[in-house]
UniProtKB/TrEMBL annotation:
Organism: Phormidesmis priestleyi ULC007
One Pfam family of this chain: RodZ_C
Keywords: ATP-binding, Kinase, Membrane, Nucleotide-binding, Serine/threonine-protein kinase, Transferase, Transmembrane, Transmembrane helix
Entry EC no(s): 2.7.11.1
PROSITE patterns xref list: PROTEIN_KINASE_ATP (PS00107), PROTEIN_KINASE_DOM (PS50011)
Residues where ATP binds: K65
The name this protein goes by in its record: non-specific serine/threonine protein kinase
């Protein structure tokens, strides 16, 4: 089916192969390639259509946005037209990001403005919320997905200004969250941030300074925080704020428990005063990464020298009748083909010299194996030439490591002895971790990572195809 884009057409539905509308005679295609199939939304300033790109062999789906304001006030029309043009400019300026729809075309035809962009097949978080309130793990994942996107657009001096569940789509093919509708986005410069302008955004999710027309980068973080508590409670944000006391009361409406650590992150996102709120997505990412993750993270107990030795000695202990107690944990870690099996041990009636000899033998054998194994190679930026592993030291400071993915790659992050992340990170994402003492970064394709250590300038982690490990410590 084809759908006529003439707003006044009384019978807009046409045959799939139609070149002009059978009722009003308007050309059906845009630029002889984009054909609207059916309308999927309408707002105060325009209409949105599902469409196909017939100039391509597979005829992929896309979205056509038509500027068609309902208001006739001259000032409103001017503002609406500027917002429509701004969305095209912002999408073009931001370029390609896997979590922002790609701009395909911006054009004018038959006295109407049109914007054509990538079709994101999936449900909005507003639609998902109808299935029930979100859990802590879902909110953590949301923040981990979207904070790097905000970091990306803020680095391009763009403020989204309309973050809410309806503008976040979970892409069906990979379950990744995509941030849509940059129509309200504003280009920010050092002086522009200080000027009072038009209030744009959805009132329930809008930061106080944005209501006054003074949106800043952290205004997006505020809106993201409000989005989170709305998803956690299924309550209108207006009902989650006590105007009498001047404070958020979202915890009173939770249907699932939330840890104190995540609660503190949300509270800081929701601060009314910008000087108490997170000033950047990076700082929020750092706090979120340092917080323990439910159902994922495991506490790491300190080990004594005897326990460290014992980790390598399951079979010899059995032979010597050294009785192991109940195992504490067994973990398999990929990357450098490691594994560890931790056990508390009780040694029965053996003389100290005999036990020491037996315990030392495997250590000696492991040292020999390490000596003859192939050494790792590191890039000049991070490596110590005489060492098989690189160690970067930041005396007396917390350790913060930020990575930007320029391509897909397997990454493992261990923070203060605890595995925080292991898996494949997509191109375009930025993640930040903070530790008290040490961060171990492993990558299966070092050339795909750009790394910053304690806010130093970004550096390429290594060569493409190189497997690399670096220890950052204080």
């Amino acid at each position: 089916m084809s759908y006529c884009l003439n707003p006044t057409c009384a019978e807009p539905q046409n045959r799939s192969e139609a070149e002009v509308c059978q009722h009003c005679g308007l050309i059906v295609q845009l630029q002889n390639r984009y054909r609207a199939i059916n309308p999927i939304g309408q707002g105060g300033f325009g209409r949105t259509f599902l469409a196909v790109n017939e100039a391509e062999l597979l005829k992929p789906r896309c979205v056509i946005k038509q500027f068609f304001p309902q208001q006739q006030d001259a000032n409103l029309l001017k503002t609406a037209s500027q917002l429509f043009q701004r969305e095209a400019q912002r999408l073009e300026q931001l370029g390609h990001h896997p979590q922002i729809p790609t701009l395909l075309a911006y054009l004018e035809q038959d006295h109407h403005q049109y914007l054509v962009q990538e079709w994101i097949d999936g449900q909005t978080l507003e639609q998902e919320l109808k299935m029930g309130a979100f859990t802590e793990n879902q909110i953590r994942q949301l923040l981990q997905d979207l904070l790097p996107v905000l970091q990306f657009i803020h680095h391009h001096h763009v403020i989204h200004r309309d973050i809410k569940p309806a503008n976040i789509i979970r892409r069906r093919v990979d379950r990744t969250l995509v941030l849509v509708d940059l129509g309200a986005a504003k280009f920010a410069t050092g002086t522009a941030l200080l000027k009072t302008g038009t209030m744009i955004g959805s009132a329930e999710y809008t930061a106080p300074e944005q209501i006054r027309g003074k949106a800043v980068f952290s205004s997006d973080l505020y809106s993201l925080g409000v989005t989170c508590i709305h998803l956690l409670t299924q309550m209108s944000p207006f009902d989650l704020f006590d105007g009498t006391e001047g404070q958020w009361i979202w915890r009173d409406y939770l249907t699932h428990s939330v840890s104190d650590r995540l609660g503190k992150v949300l509270d800081k996102l929701l601060e009314s005063a910008t000087n108490r709120r997170y000033r950047s997505a990076e700082s929020a990412i750092a706090d979120l990464s340092s917080a323990p993750q439910l159902e994922v993270s495991r506490s790491v107990e300190p080990t004594t020298p005897w326990q460290t030795i014992a980790e390598t000695l399951v079979n010899p202990l059995i032979a010597l009748d050294i009785e192991p107690a109940k195992p504490l944990a067994t973990a398999a870690k990929s990357g450098a083909a490691r594994f560890a099996s931790r056990q508390h041990l009780r040694i029965s009636n053996w003389s100290f010299p005999a036990a020491l000899i037996v315990l030392s033998l495997p250590i000696f054998l492991m040292s020999v194996l390490r000596a003859v194994s192939s050494p790792r190679h590191y890039s000049h930026d991070f490596a110590k030439p005489a060492s098989q592993s690189a160690t970067i030291v930041a005396p007396h400071l917390p350790v913060t490591v930020s990575i930007l993915m320029t391509d897909r790659a397997w990454v493992s992050i261990t923070v203060d002895g605890k595995l925080e992340f292991e898996g494949v990170l997509p191109e375009g994402i930025r993640q930040t971790w903070t530790a008290d003492q040490q961060i171990i970064l492993q990558a299966g394709n070092a050339g795909a990572l750009v790394v910053s250590f304690n806010q130093t300038p970004d550096q390429v982690f290594g060569k493409f195809g190189e497997i690399k490990e670096v220890i950052f410590s204080n």
